[in-house]
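[step 3/7] fold_predict: job queued, chain A
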Amino acid sequence: MQFNTDAGDHHPQEGMDEVLPGPQNPTVRAEGLRRRTFAIISHPDAGKTTLTEKFLLYAGQIDVAGAVRGRKTQRAVASDWMELERERGISISSTALSFSYGGHVVNLLDTPGHQDFSEDTYRTLAAADSAVMVIDAAKGIETQTKKLFRVCSIRGIPILTFINKMDRLGRDPMSLLSEVEQVLGIDAIPMNWPLGLGNEFRGVYNRERGSALLFQPTGHGSAQVPTKELDLAAALDGGSPVTAHRVRQELELLDGAGVPFDRDRFLAGRMTPVFFGSAMTNFGVGPFLDSFLHLAPPPGLRRCDQGLVPPDRQWFAGQVFKIQANLNPRHRDRVAFVRVCCGRFDPEADLTLARTGTKVRIKGSHRLFAREREAMEEAYPGDIIGLANTGGLRLGDTICEGPTLQFEALPQFSPECFATARCSDTKRRKQFTDGLQQLSDEGVVQVFTDRGNLREPILAAVGELQFDVVRFRLESEYGVRAEIAPLPYRAGAWVAASADVTTHTLIRSMKVAFDHLGRAVVLAEDAFSIRHLQKQVPSLGLLPFTDNLFAPTG
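[step 4/7] structure written:
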């Protein structure tokens, strides 16, 4: 089988953009080439968080791996740090994990799998250079997988695919490859092939090396599995003759009719290398991590308002893609997650907030490992740094030294669910207001103002589970019991025109509210009402949520 897997720089589709001129730093370039910054995406329960944990196990960051398996186990995964995540067994907040492995610095961004938190996932993907897509071997491509794939496609992010749970009864590997290609519209190239399925899954055949890896089980997958490398014939001799015959036939078919892997097409988002394994038993995890480091691109060009920014540019520039408060419940801390896009970060440098032109004073910079952190005195392209107590920073902000530039803004999703928030204890009103403001700053929920009822703000979200997070965090972090009542609105539109929408007569069931930037939105019980108003009053320039995935910028 032929492979073109030579490593090299990854650049976005450049079009007519020009690379920004300016001095370049060879040390920054060398350090950037060592970085691999990626996000893990999947449908809920496909095994994304378990795979994350096993990466940490193989990198030597944890001694014993935990997994979300119910109440029988006392271990909990390191990447799910929020109490609500541990209670429900799902990832709610994107987590940054940084570790060293194989001579590389790996920055892993574990994203929420639940569709209600897709906005947080989208922002996190803006900080990634590649993505690992985890697919359940029994279920194949699921709804959230398709949605997240589209987001990666929009951003031009290369994807590696890990087909998980091969130790359980599932779909035929060939049919899974066909589904990836047909549903996602991308060539799927198997880099290894499973030796046995379900209870007979014993190892994988590395198609590039032409050798088989057999795995020996360990206790509940909590430790690295012993691995033996053999030729294919020797590996198949110890198993079922039926399995051996099927594997040989499948490999002959792949070699004869399959498309060879091409790195350039992979980096362009038109091809995905596929790996088979089981995160629960650790079968195939180590080889996949090794292959990932070889295939995944280092930091490349990033688009800004002046063109394309090379990662080895002399001056530092980074973008805020996440804000998180109360990582440490004993302190009212606030951390801005910043992706280093170019240059070398130095907390003592003269930094500017591009949006305002004001100077930024760094009070503390940290390397992150879920909720744990350590002081970070320097960082290079691809690194994720946490800046502490940065009240002046917003999502999407650019901070830089040298000539000012601004990276592309992070889009805000149009909401789909609405509710009112009410503080029943008047003595806790300030904490209620502060908490909602913080959660809005983090992007947990959008807060709209109803000028006819200022004491009960309107919460707007992509999914209703976001309201549960708001209620939980207001109580656990701010000591406020909030009453959150759903509203009947299921449709809405941004008002693009400068005209005062409140001067128009609306349908009785509609409501006008205003977002944090003062932009008017019209809420309605159904999309028909929005269409009717759009037709009757075209001067409002309505932008229906159903037609606009993202809110207008500015």
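[step 5/7] annotate
The longest helix spans residues 241-257.
Residues 36-298 form a domain with the Rossmann fold fold (CATH 3.40.50.300).
exit 0
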